[in-house]
């Protein structure tokens, strides 16, 4: 038997906080050594954190990364253990995303990433160059002077290759290299590599865990091997949550798997592997042997060192385990709650403030904060000292008190405010929405306020009348659309001002330190079609649901009512089924003003954002999807309505509140949906093509069935 113990970890790093990152790295190494591991793998760019973005363009970032690596090598952190550290490296004029493989206080080789992640939340091509050279053999990289002097090592191999030890071979495959069209691990396997180390920076998205796990297990299913996967855990300062799931796979079977949703800073998983099982799998595979006989030779670095343990009588190896993949509703709850906690504990804030109206979007945010409070109390009960220290500081506990009840903790860190208006304005707040807000706040445990904003609105309207001599009327009182919209916007912007005022002053009123972060609750659908008020209630410090469509939020509410213990969410979800709003709506009504249901908006939004469809492509797609309920002419009208509102309101996307990216579907202009914000909202050419196609379908007798509605 060739038995080797390996360790991989998920780390909760913070972009540009090198002290925080080094603390987590060192703790992971200590725990790996204590477990007897011969290999320790950390996540991609762990020294700087993955989310540094344009900080990678700064020379200081590279300098500090080398300083941190030197600290790890000068100490005994790599003594007797192969460590793979992620950091940016400059080579001439090029900047590379690298894994630096170290052993016994020396750098064995530097492996630059070959295929970069670009698109969605990743923009590596903006900061890094992809390593494209497979030949000639590994280049020699000249180390920075201060590192060279400290290590008594001048150069190190740099490039694509693997490390050949006396008893096995080890190689790196960095993040995207596994998930691209032509991964590199098969070629490495044919060259004899048995242990693959994948350092990743993979952010959470709903339903992504299963896809990712299939790729990892598939990597060694056909060609055998030990696949170590490491990922970040938590939020490193941006809009994404890294969902851990570090794991170890042997010949296609998962033998160790880490946490997906956790408040921990370090999550280590360890497995003991018999490498002879890898060899046996390959020896018995005739096609593998034949391909290995004519392989392309990959360069290697020889290290005269043994990683495997000597055989002992009671040696055991890790057995396959089953992995639970959570449902999408649980992912929304847990991922968003962890994301919020990371922002809260690192921002210096003392809590959150949420304008709560007893409707789907704001109630979802309240439930997520409640879920966060439950997670905090649970982690404290499980003995997590870091979470305990953060909760004591944020909750302003004294005299040895600690949070033991989620509602009591929520009361200390969460304000909810119902800001109602009377029937004299364009929108009014119903008694039901007021009641539902109060009941939900009691279930979650928030400090709840019920505020009438009529006086503030009346003062603004009086000021306008004094300045212009004009008095505004809503539609019910004979007002125009312009007046009606103005009245709605005045209310929304008044609520925004009041929310930020309360967030900054309520802690002072209650003799608490710090400030509160204002939470927004605008959904992806509302953002995409602009069904929101610019600088109104859509404004905040953070938006937990900004990339989630309302259909998914409704499903989340049904799940949360049962699984989080907030039973009032079921009533909130059922209060207003899909029905198109009239313009004279109340605040507790949920659907869009543009003549489309939540479901229709969700479908159009995904086709626009994820599948990148323009008006004509969307029309054709929807003709197939909706052919049993709508005619081509009806579908054309909906597509035109959607794109007219999308274009007219595109400017609003430039100021959206930073939101948690839980889907690949986010309308944020400055991050994920980079299109212009000034459009010809009539789309004359595209709409004309749709009309021509509708006419052709009708003329050719291919008209789809007429709607029965």
From TrEMBL:
PROSITE patterns membership: CN_HYDROLASE
Residue span(s) of domain CN hydrolase: 4-275
Listed Pfam families: CN_hydrolase (PF00795), NAD_synthase (PF02540)
SUPFAM superfamilies in the cross-refs: Adenine nucleotide alpha hydrolases-like, Carbon-nitrogen hydrolase
Catalytic activity: deamido-NAD(+) + L-glutamine + ATP + H2O = L-glutamate + AMP + diphosphate + NAD(+) + H(+)
Keyword Transmembrane: no
EC number: 6.3.5.1
Associated pathway: Cofactor biosynthesis; NAD(+) biosynthesis; NAD(+) from deamido-NAD(+) (L-Gln route): step 1/1
Superkingdom, taxonomy of origin: Eukaryota
Top-level enzyme category: ligase
Keyword entries, A-Z: ATP-binding, Ligase, NAD, Nucleotide-binding
Similarity section: In the C-terminal section; belongs to the NAD synthetase family.
Protein name in UniProt: Glutamine-dependent NAD(+) synthetase
Organism: Sesamum angustifolium
């Amino acid at each position: 038997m060739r038995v080797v113990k390996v360790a991989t970890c998920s780390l909760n790093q913070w972009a540009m906080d090198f002290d925080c990152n080094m603390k987590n790295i060192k703790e992971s190494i200590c725990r790996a050594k204590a477990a007897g591991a011969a290999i320790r793998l950390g996540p991609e760019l762990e020294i700087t954190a993955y989310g540094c973005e344009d900080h990678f363009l700064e020379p200081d970032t590279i300098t500090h990364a080398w300083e941190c690596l030197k600290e790890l090598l000068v100490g005994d952190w790599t003594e007797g253990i192969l460590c793979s550290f992620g950091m940016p490296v400059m080579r001439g004029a090029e900047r590379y995303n690298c894994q630096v493989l170290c052993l016994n206080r020396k750098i064995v080789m530097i492996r630059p990433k070959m295929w970069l992640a670009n698109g969605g939340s990743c923009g590596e091509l903006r900061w890094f160059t992809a390593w494209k050279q497979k030949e000639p053999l590994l280049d020699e990289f000249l180390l920075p002077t201060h590192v060279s002097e400290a290590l008594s090592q001048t150069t190190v191999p740099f490039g694509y290759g693997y490390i050949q030890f006396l008893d096995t071979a080890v190689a790196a495959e960095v993040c995207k290299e596994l998930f691209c069209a032509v991964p590199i691990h098969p070629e490495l396997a044919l060259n004899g590599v048995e242990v693959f180390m994948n350092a990743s920076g993979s952010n959470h998205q709903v339903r992504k865990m299963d896809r990712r796990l299939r790729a990892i297990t598939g990597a060694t299913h056909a060609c055998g091997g030990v696949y170590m996967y490491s990922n970040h855990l938590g939020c490193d300062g941006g809009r994404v949550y890294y969902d851990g799931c570090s794991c170890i796979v042997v010949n296609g079977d998962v033998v160790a798997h880490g946490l997906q949703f956790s408040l921990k800073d370090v999550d280590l998983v360890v497995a003991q592997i018999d490498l002879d099982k890898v060899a046996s799998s390959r020896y018995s595979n005739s096609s593998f042997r034949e391909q290995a006989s004519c392989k392309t030779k990959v360069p290697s670095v020889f290290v005269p060192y043994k990683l495997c343990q000597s055989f002992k009588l009671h040696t055991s190896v890790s057995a396959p385990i089953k992995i639970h993949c959570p449902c999408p509703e649980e992912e929304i709850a847990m991922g968003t709650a962890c994301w919020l906690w990371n922002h809260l504990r690192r921002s210096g804030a003392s809590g959150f403030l949420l304008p709560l109206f007893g409707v789907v979007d704001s109630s979802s945010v309240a439930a997520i904060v409640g879920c966060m409070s439950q997670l905090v109390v649970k982690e404290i009960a499980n003995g997590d000292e870091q979470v305990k220290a953060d909760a004591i500081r944020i909750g302003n506990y004294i005299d040895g008190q600690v949070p033991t009840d989620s509602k009591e903790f929520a009361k200390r860190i969460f304000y909810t405010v119902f800001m109602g208006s009377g029937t004299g304005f364009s929108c009014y707040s119903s008694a039901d929405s007021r009641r539902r807000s109060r009941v939900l706040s009691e279930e979650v445990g928030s400090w709840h306020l019920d505020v009438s904003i009529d006086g503030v609105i009346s003062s603004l309207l009086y000021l306008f009348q004094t300045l212009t001599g004009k008095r505004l009327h809503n539609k019910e009182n004979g007002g125009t659309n312009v007046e009606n919209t103005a009245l709605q916007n005045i209310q929304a912007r008044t609520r925004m001002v009041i929310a930020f005022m309360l967030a900054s002053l309520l802690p002072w009123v209650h003799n608490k330190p710090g400030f509160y972060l204002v939470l927004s609750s605008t959904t992806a659908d509302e953002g995409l079609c602009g069904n929101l008020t610019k600088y109104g209630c859509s404004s905040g410090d953070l938006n937990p649901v900004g990339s989630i469509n309302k259909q998914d939020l409704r499903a989340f509410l049904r799940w949360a009512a049962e699984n989080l213990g907030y039973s009032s969410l079921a009533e909130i979800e059922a209060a207003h089924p899909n029905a198109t709003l009239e313009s004279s709506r109340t605040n507790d009504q949920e659907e869009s003003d543009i003549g489309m249901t939540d479901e229709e908006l969700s479908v159009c939004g995904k086709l626009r954002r994820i599948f990148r469809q323009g008006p004509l492509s969307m029309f054709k797609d929807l003709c197939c999807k909706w052919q049993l309920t709508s005619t081509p002419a009806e579908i054309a009208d909906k597509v035109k309505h959607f794109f007219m509102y999308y274009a007219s309101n595109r400017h609003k996307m430039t100021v959206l509140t930073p939101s948690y990216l839980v889907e690949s579907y986010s309308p944020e202009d400055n991050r994920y949906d980079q299109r212009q914000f000034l459009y010809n909202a009539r789309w004359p050419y595209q709409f004309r093509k749709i009309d021509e196609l509708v006419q052709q379908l009708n003329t050719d007798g291919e008209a789809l069935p007429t709607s029965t509605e």
